[in-house]
Design brief:
The structure is a homohexamer.
Chain A (H helix, E strand, L loop, with lengths): L2 H12 L2 E2 L30 E6 L14 H7 L18 H5 L1 E7 L6 H17 L3 E6 L4 H13 L4 E6 L19 H8 L7 E6 L6 H9 L3 E4 H7 L1 H12 L6 E7 L21 H14 L2 E7 L10 H22 L2
Parallel strand pairs in A: 2-3, 2-4, 4-9, 5-6, 5-8, 6-7, 8-9
Antiparallel strand pairs in A: 1-3
Helix pairs in contact in A: 2-11, 4-5, 5-6, 8-9, 9-10, 10-11
């Protein structure tokens, strides 16, 4: 048996996190330079938010490449990687205010869908178990099944609302005859009960998918969704108002925010796998996530479907990086009561 | 005489449609997988809309490449090519509702402007003659002279309104000393009487062309046009309201919708030949064409000036594909009375 | 249950071949316009060579994208798609001389490694069973395990030599803890006995992988391999001479030629997933495969690891297209005895 | 001593302007074909506006490339380079109406920050001294210290307001331990008194820089700034109204307009060095600068931070070209009183 | 009649040369900064070589874009544009030694094939008439019919040999039913007698075109051609030896060198329209043209098929620029007798 | 004074090495995962080779971007970042055999040429002082003045030979009136005596620079150089033989190998700033450096002029990574006596 394989196997057996030492496309440094932590160091760490990557794209049906997303998102900035990002409107540095650390990437296995999802779920659960907020960098949208399940295992099935920005509902019954893929995570969450239909708010849907039978199922599950045509007609502000109200109903413990970068128009965010024209502007998305994170209790979040091979001048990776920062800003403002 | 040339000649003499068997840049499959038809099969076909390509770009004055447009537009999707596209807001599948077939590309000849235009005109006319709506994928904007003329030959000169989305008025007197080119089609249509000036509504004009003498001529012909500055000031909704009203006047039989993709801001739709900053957003264009196709009788349409060599991650081709779908959606909604 | 899913399931149960109707990234037309056939039409068809695609890239460890390879390779030409390509040096049209047809792409399932490999193996076997030569367009190199196994099932385990152009030996013991992937196909072939070690000739290896234990294993299996340093020193001509001799030993029935496009220098063939600098020139590869196909009995072939998202101006896809043509030319020259 | 070096030195000693004869990345023709002039020919020339380039990017902290900006901006058009650009809304040709000439690029020295700034300052001053309006094509934003200082030397320190479109405030105390760089020009202008803080209006700021201490300093200097969040909330129209009012206060002689192209969203303007998501649309910027130039007395302007290596299909260079034209249009409308 | 059109028409009637003032894609400066001349200034000018551009690509059958070739080739250098390029091996500056001037671009008309060819022919003839050597920057290969005809009109039909570097023979009988295009120029030259078949030497041919009937015709005309397989087998040095001997036979007055950049492998020269894998290296081409220009009397030359939209980092334009310089170096060495 | 600036200043005062915490474009991880070390930890470390980066490109005269070189070169691999790279021909892992560590990037200051060079020199000297071999990742070629000077300070002025792979001699007298830049480092080294002319061997020169006066000076200094035309004629093997002999003369202590990536043909290595067509192939360069490092005592090395913004699919960065590995392989083979 070869040495490299032995080392790999030993490592894989031990821990659920990998680095570039084992997967070449894993991230090699932390998000904007925040402190690096190991999963087993979290318990006593004062940090409130834990960033992790899920370099997984074998759930895609069309253009792959999102495996390079976590690395690209972490590095997409022109500023020093010093873990300090004071928000211009408020002067608040969310990284310091909340305490944000980065535990690297989950040890996913290329081509292994279910095993990889299990590992992601486990890591997210372990993070949430420490009372901290996991913020996952994808990866394709398949991972949200793992991400939200991990959070729900800790905070209770049915106790977490999911606010979902996306061009697509991702509620497919199956995907190429498989249960798990980037077109089905929301269905699986509803079915498992981790996030029941009435806990969903979807924003930015458009295009020609899924088909009416699926939309009918979504309605039957009491899922709330806002099409781009709704947003054009009623304004994003109103939509977000309603999302806040809807997501706060009935004793929910908090929300998980899932941002598929393709909610933004592909003309502004080309680096993604299943582009659907006619989306939000970057500005709209940034404002919306910050406001949500300020007005609701965030229990977890992910930013997915950034595919660097299709990006130009890294603009999509930059946008995803800022989506993370604006979520953190909203959380920091809430914490400080500003 | 060589075999290849003989075959080419024989084919060219026979029919006005070519495939990649004769022109390498012709499309090799149908729009999103709708059924393929031959021109001579249309009469008894129940389909109401016929898609055809015009891979013609030798009417451009600057960046060429639109010859690859029809192929790129037909293929620009991440979904299965199954001829089924249910619209998310309504559940209506316009492809099935209307019956949409694809007859491939017109047998244009690179470098031959007038011969190519004649062939396009002939094919469009023959399609319209069957009572179906021709929807032409360009190609540069020169082809609209052929497209609209073909429709007018069937429905009557002066009986068809032309709603024209574009950054440019395309009413040049001549182009490099020639009558036909992508800067002159609207002038030729007015002059020939196929579409008189008072049947024109132009939306999205901006920039520094054409010069005042030409604008003066446009006004003298009673052409209606809306600049981007008008749209910014008065709102696109109002402009579309007026367009509907204007295009419905005086016993017109219906409209031809011509969409130059450069009406959208080049930052969002870079794959085009004569980019003019400051345009519509993708969202605005998609909403506008659907609404027009719903509120008016569409007799023909074209989508032009997509130049794949200048595109990034195919975002412009995707946008053009969706423009086609949204026009079809409007038509389907009108048909179903929703 | 949704309509789309039902249709997909029904189709998947029926046949092992898919088209873009089921997988959006599948090819939509045939290789350079050769006639299309269904798998069940082959028996009575006079064609001697059958092209098929395997749009599979979930066996990659690094850059994905080879799922778009079959489509890109089939279309990479500036000539008419008329199934006629007379070779300039001889005037022979290998497509017509041999009879070449295209059955489209295997119905692979994104993210499902073993199921997909089984389907590829089955299709290749069924093609070979008809006495025709399967020529597979990849896809990542994982598929060669399926391709060569399918051929060996018909012509006999141990009865087929494998000539393998590659920067990498692809003899890894495991890959990320899995048996199947693009780093292990040759190991699996040796282990299963489909192609024993002494039937292997590898050409173009270089770089820093696999590790010495694996190279030792390769030697223990009597695999023959030529490093780029050997080629630089002794000349490619000599290496090919030896390859012909080695592959002809001991009553072998014929050869399977497997070309990983990364055998060519990444500076000349950038569109690939695991580029290793210092490779062959395009010219060298084209000459070598033609000569091999002329001097040996070809029982099957594949061309793999073309990743269009990383290509520039399609140069890598063009090269792969010509590798296919040169293999066919060699076969045609052999057939005609020129 | 070598001949080339001797020629270079002789030239450098003589005049502050260079051409491609001395710096390969200098522009080789004039802005849209306006007449070329030498600096010493300006005095008696009737032109009111003088375009010059500052191909300087060694003040950048991250992505360089803006040295190719002046050339790219001058050439970014699909129309004939004939110095004639009638504005579609008005028919006014600002190039002819104002008289616009181009004196080429300042003879900057790669890697020499201060010497280059001195030369830029000198040229701008000499242009302003003739009573004409200098319009500088950058280059990175470092040059605005030179540009505005050159104008202030003529019109008086403290007598010129500076309206600054940017994602960044550029008021850093130092940059990598240096005084001059693209993060500090506004600080230096305030400190030198060329443009005191109360003469500043900044529009479009966003993101996470500069830090609170610097923002505090900005406030202490009475600098007026509008964040993107302000613009979203109150509308750009209102913001521009206030900018006009603020910039007109207290006997100011006129304004200098400085446009950092990164004020526009990087999704729409990717060709820049320090992209900050969430910016203005192209349309918004074009409308704003035209209105400002119409309502205020423009004494100078610059357009900076266009970095062609990061651009796609030249869309960012086109946008910058139109920013220049819209400023000129505003000035022409003011001159004609329309 | 509009002003712009009037100016255009007046200009077009007057002279056969245009600039960017009339055609936006025309070059705006001279080749590497050599002196600019007007066509009517040549007679008394001591220069021996005259560079001109033919921004013509409407003779292409596949990818267009070569209209941007002349501009790109002229500018493709990192050195100062000072008209001075001492060759490293010899110290000779061919630009100064020979006297090289640039008269700009021929006033071609987009979409007008024959008119454009006539103008090119006329300009080349007028240049050759002054006793100078025309060196034409293309443009697609259609122009060689014009270029070589213009030279032959002066030096005598049948008196000029044509050495032709190309992947393709360009001897098609027709092209899409037309006489003129980039696949037929050599046929037309043979037929017209300007360059009879026995005066042709073609180097670098490969691939699958033209078909045997055409190759047979080439042989019947006594055209000499070297395939890449010949070059691989016998060495480029030998081939060039033979080319020199063949081109010198029978009282010929000199040679015209026509370099289609696609003779180089597309992996090294991607910016071209009809890429054919398996070509020369850049080094081989540069050495060959210099040697030919040194050993033969050059009466004219062209460099064609550079298509900037498909280029990467301008490498193809740089290569074409150096092909021009190496031809000039060979001529200069011959002149100086070194 | 702002916090960020204070931190920066404190850091800058302390140590000569920076990380991405201070310069955003600095590398964030080590070369292929070798162990990270601080400069002050080297003395007792058993490692024999120390990798460091010099992200400096403000010495370029044309295209910048090499500041991103060190990061790109370190990461350019598809294998796990585990510091283990067994060479396929020998099985030797040079990283482990030699002991290779990475100390990160020198704390250079954008826009400050001399200060940056001083810091680089100091770090290289301190590394060499520990008896280890510094291997510097550039950065533009200006840094070789610092790199080789740092080595010479330890091993003695005039005691180190410099083998220099490059398209350009880099012996310019001045560069834009400055002493230091990427066109002058070799001149400065000769003048200072760090590396006298007779210690130079330059390989791969070509093109049109420097001018004859400078070449004359090179000869007067007894510099040995091989043009590409020499290599074509005599073979690279012979040239390397002579280089070994020349570099070993006269009691030299060892060699410094400086590889400008533009020695390779730009068609194969497009990501560089001053591309000169007609260079070596990647294969040639890799073989040459390995052989030199095996046959000579390497005291230091650098790999420069990789400019990622101009690269395609990272092929140039990959090549540079392999150049480093091949140098290390040669050193490891020498150490082990194989």
């Amino acid at each position: 048996m070869s040495t490299q394989y032995e080392r790999y196997q030993r490592r894989a057996a031990e821990v659920p996190l990998a680095t570039a030492e084992y997967i070449a496309f894993a991230s090699r440094d932390t998000f904007l330079g925040v402190p690096a932590r190991r999963l087993d160091q979290l318990t006593d760490d004062p940090a409130e938010v834990v960033i992790l990557g899920a370099p997984f794209d074998w759930g895609t049906t069309y253009r792959p490449g999102a495996r390079f997303g976590p690395k690209a998102i972490r590095e997409a900035d022109y500023g020093a990687m010093d873990g300090y990002r004071p928000h211009l409107p408020t002067g608040i540095d969310p990284l310091g205010t909340l305490g944000v650390v980065d535990i690297g990437d989950v040890f996913v296995v290329p081509g292994q869908v279910e095993l990889s999802l299990e590992r992601i779920t486990e890591v997210v659960e372990r993070v949430a178990r420490t009372g901290k907020v996991p913020l996952v960098l994808g990866g394709d949208h398949t991972i949200t099944f793992a991400d939200a399940t991990g959070v729900a295992r800790v905070h209770g099935f049915g106790q977490v609302a999911l606010i979902h920005f996306d061009a697509h509902a991702d509620t497919g019954e199956h995907q190429n005859d498989q249960l798990y893929g980037h077109g089905t995570p929301m269905r699986r969450l509803v079915e498992s009960g981790a996030v029941p239909g009435h806990r969903f708010v979807q924003i930015g849907l458009r295009g020609y998918w899924p088909e009416p039978e699926v939309v009918e199922w979504m309605r039957s599950q009491d899922m709330r969704f806002y099409l781009m045509s709704d947003i054009e007609e009623r304004g994003l502000r109103t939509v977000v108002d309603e999302a806040v109200a809807y997501a706060s109903r009935g004793g929910v413990k908090g929300v998980f925010i899932s941002v598929d970068i393709d909610v933004v128009d592909p003309g502004m965010a080309p680096g993604t796998g299943t582009p659907e024209p006619g989306g939000l502007t970057s500005r709209q998305l940034l404002d919306a996530v910050r406001r949500l994170a300020k007005e609701l209790v965030v229990l977890g979040a992910d930013v997915v479907e950034v595919s660097p091979p299709y990006d130009t001048a890294e603009v999509t990776a930059y946008l995803a990086n800022r989506v993370v920062l604006e979520i953190l800003n909203g959380m920091a403002e809430r914490k400080l009561g500003v």
